[in-house]
Amino acid sequence: MGSRPRRRQIRNQVAEATQFRIRAAIGFASVLLALGGLALWYFKLQVIDHADYATRSQANRIKPRPVVPGRGLIYDRKGRVLADNIPAYRIDVVPENAGDPKQLIASLSRIIALSPADIAAFEAARKSTRGFRAIPLRLRISDDEAARFAVDRWRYPGVDLVPYLTRRYPHGDLFAHVIGYVGRTDEGDLKKYGENQALYAHTGRTGIERYYDEALRGSIGYEQVETNVEGRALNTIGRVPATPGADLRLSLDLDLQRAMVMAFGDLEGSAVAIDPRSGGILAMVSLPSYDPNLFVNGISHADFRRLNDNPSRPQFNRLVLGGVAPGSTIKPLLALAGLDSGVRKPEDKTLSTGSFRLPGMRGRGWGDSHTHGHGWTDARKSIADSVNTYYYRLAQDMGVERFDTYLAKYGFGKPTGIDLAGEIEGILPSPAAKAKLVGEQWYPGDLINAAIGQGMWKVTPLQLARGTAAIADDGRLRRPHLVAAQRTGFNSAWQSLPQPQPVRISDRADNLLVVQEGMQMTVHGPGGTARTIGIGSPYRMAGKTGTAQVVNRRIAGINPKSLPMHQRHRALFVGYAPAEAPTIAVAVAVEGGGYGSSTAAPIARKILDAWLLGKMPEPDPKAIPLGAVPVGVFANVVGTPAATGVVASDVQAGNATVAPALQAPR
């Protein structure tokens, strides 16, 4: 048999083996290279760039959070709390964590009542501040709303229930026009103060709260907070403390304030009491009043409409905004001007026949309170008996320029400088003032009207009280003020606020004595216009009655009680006591009160009795002024209503502190 043919080898095993070794080497090298690259990258992350990435990680886990200080407390002169803070809860939103704001608000509205004002304030703050900052959406939520939110809290990342301090006025309507109130921070506040203002829930709106807002609110602090993935705080690891708001101690006296309101009964008007030795305000009221607590966290439409539609205007501050003609209360100062200018001497007498006419004048002319006149009248009698003719002739002899110069020196026609915002300057009658206001020329009769406090005059009760206090303090015109001292924190010492030096309105002690004696005769003299309030008084008073005419003289002889309120004259009284060493000067203005002797003077006597004798007027619960609330004035409370309440300086830290009582001399 023959041999088989040899098979030809198709695969080259050697070549394949070589190729396999090459591929394996390349694959192995690639793996080694990749592992080396990963090792190098890992080394870079863990060693070279460790500090940078650690910082970034820490920033994601630890965030700064502002610490808002508690608003400063406000005390009366004896340390009784007039404005404090109480713990409450609000809803805060961190925009960068909360998603679409419209959807959020729509969803939250199902469990929490959100007013248009709440939403508007939130939107304004959201557009003006950075996204990582918490913004209040709704202040002072109810317990029921807090419970409903707690159930669904997990649905709302970036939304939290936050404790905070809200403002409280424990005496309600009693100090509304003096202390004022705070309101929710809005868009206007952000434009005025900057985006940091959004961190404060409240901003001062009126009164002392507005004037001293910067001092009362303090300065923001910060804390480093550890958070979870939803941005909720887990732990505080560092803190820069906030500077607490300054506490203010006022010159006001709570008891005298309450007595002043009680003295008015159901009448409307205003009154102010000043310590003539310092210029400190002892009490000041504008009636009717309102409850400032309504405004703190947003007033309801119904409450605002009720106040706004009240014809008695309870929100209007008659003390610094309500200009009236001074009537005869200007006569003591005008008498002093006549004496100091040399136009009159104390013994000079003017004949009062019951009427007065300018040269060449026809008709009735100007009259006196007595139809047949007061006879021969000197400076003292002109004040005590309120003799118009004396002042007609005095003004005529002085001339309008000298008249204006002296009355401006006594503080009229310009603000007093009191630490309340919005004070008007008033109007001092002059040719320039008349031309500016009504575009008419000045006539000689205008000065005659001005001589008895009528015509173009416009003064505030505060200006009248200040001028009266200057007479009581032997010619020293002081700046009236409400805040006597301030401190930062309970453990800090009180620092008295410096006041400007008084301005001398007269260097003639003899002339001042004539005016002072005339004012004493007004109350204690046989013909004095306020002699009825001096009966039975254990101390001597000095005063002057006045009437600010609202309508013309055709109804002057009609009983004012028979006229509609808007047609009745305003009753005025200014005075001080004790006459020998005055510690209090007052001005009282009663709207629709008719005449000062019968309405305003008795109110002033009650105020003086309360201060000097500790005698409080009898309260009449039925005589609550329109627009006022009974809390405060007629509350059966003595001492410090807020003394038992918590006035925490930092709720978040859990440090609830009771406001300490103070002792200050009267």
Write the layout of secondary structure elements.
Blueprint: H1 13-48, H2 50-61, E1 62-67, E2 74-75, E3 81-93, H3 95-98, H4 101-108, H5 116-128, E4 135-138, H6 143-151, E5 159-168, H7 176-179, E6 182-184, H8 187-193, E7 202-204, H9 207-211, H10 213-217, E8 221-227, E9 233-240, E10 247-250, H11 254-264, E11 268-274, E12 281-287, H12 301-308, H13 331-340, E13 350-352, E14 355-356, E15 366-367, E16 375-377, H14 379-384, H15 388-398, H16 400-409, H17 431-438, H18 444-451, H19 461-472, E17 476-477, E18 483-487, E19 495-496, E20 503-504, H20 509-524, E21 542-548, E22 570-577, E23 584-591, H21 596-613
Parallel strand pairs: 2-10
Antiparallel strand pairs: 1-8, 2-3, 3-4, 3-5, 6-7, 8-9, 10-18, 11-12, 11-23, 13-16, 14-15, 17-20, 18-19, 21-22, 22-23
Helix pairs in contact: 11-21, 13-15, 13-20, 15-18
